[in-house]
Specification:
single chain, alpha/beta, Glutaredoxin, Serine Threonine Protein Phosphatase 5, Tetratricopeptide repeat, 3 domains, five-stranded mixed β-sheet, 15 helices, 10% strand, elongated
Length: 292
């Protein structure tokens, strides 16, 4: 996704040296187009040498959201005096021709990023961008391809792995989905990982019963809770959690005792397994209404 800062920075280096002679043009006027990070340093300054590679790395990482101007304070007494430099390294952020922030010393990369992020949009994580594209993809095959691309970039990315596992479960490739879950290190496994593992286990064990016969029993007796539970289990096995929720919600609505509590417990468990946020939201809403 292009951004205006990157466009403004195009056609010129992201990192460059400045002097007294070109400071007005290279820094002040340039900052009207794109933020300028001004690094004031000197050859004899040890901390300056530590900070320089950090700044040069970040200007690349941020892809044109700012440019880095490097000023040798020993060779630029005019600017150094105008900026009232007392110690170096001293870094200034200039936007729209105005000084907006500054820091001194060789800060670590994380602190410099925090400094920049107060004034700039943080650089987008390409894996997160691919995950967003996959979520909005018009078909499942494209979504899977995007997620596999994300994992090629970062093979250990937990959420991208779980996104892909969820897609693979949806098309019934349970062994492939299980293999994806097993790639996640034990220490990185979260509640979502556990829920997907339970979905795989649920999908491997087909419940007993004929859906048509169970539906006929329910039509003949709406309080045939045993049939409703059996039909709900089949629908959950098929991945139709919305239909499974409907059967158990009917139990909650119609019973005031043991069956109601059993249905409530099963619903809460399945809410954690269902990948359809809308179905879960609807199920939780009706469960709350029926219990009150």
């Amino acid at each position: 996704m292009p951004n205006p800062s990157a466009s403004a920075a195009s056609g010129a280096a992201l990192s460059f040296d400045v002097s007294d002679a070109d400071f007005e043009t290279a820094v002040i006027e340039r900052s009207l187009q794109v933020p300028v990070l001004l690094d004031c340093w000197a050859p004899w300054c040890g901390p300056c040498k530590s900070l320089k590679p950090v700044l040069e790395k970040l200007v690349q990482d941020y892809g044109g959201q700012f440019v880095l101007a490097k000023l040798n304070s020993d060779e630029c007494p005019g600017v150094a005096q105008a900026l009232q430099l007392r110690s170096i390294p001293h870094v200034f952020l200039i936007k729209g021709g105005q000084l907006v922030d500054q820091f001194t010393g060789a800060l670590p990369e994380g602190q410099v990023r925090a400094f920049l992020d107060k004034h700039l949009k943080a650089p987008a994580d390409p894996v997160d961008e691919l995950r967003e594209q996959a979520a909005a993809a018009p078909d499942a095959a494209l979504a899977e391809a995007l997620l596999r691309q994300a994992l090629a970039m970062k093979p250990g990315h937990v959420e991208a792995t779980l996104d892909l596992a969820e897609r693979v479960i949806a098309r019934g490739a349970l062994d492939d989905a299980q293999a994806l879950l097993e790639r996640v290190a034990e220490g990185a496994r979260n509640d979502r990982h556990a829920a997907l593992a339970k979905r795989i286990a649920l999908a491997r064990n087909r419940p007993q019963g004929d859906p048509a016969a169970l539906e006929a029993r329910i039509a003949a007796d709406a309080r045939d809770f045993e049939a409703r539970f059996a039909l709900a289990a089949i629908r959950a096995y098929e991945g139709d959690f919305g239909a499974a929720f409907d059967q158990l919600l009917e139990v909650v609505l119609r019973d005031k005792g043991e069956w109601r509590e059993k249905a409530r417990v099963q619903l809460v468990e399945w809410f954690g397994l269902c990948g359809d946020a809308e179905a879960v939201s609807r199920g939780r809403r009706y469960l709350g209404m029926y219990l009150n």
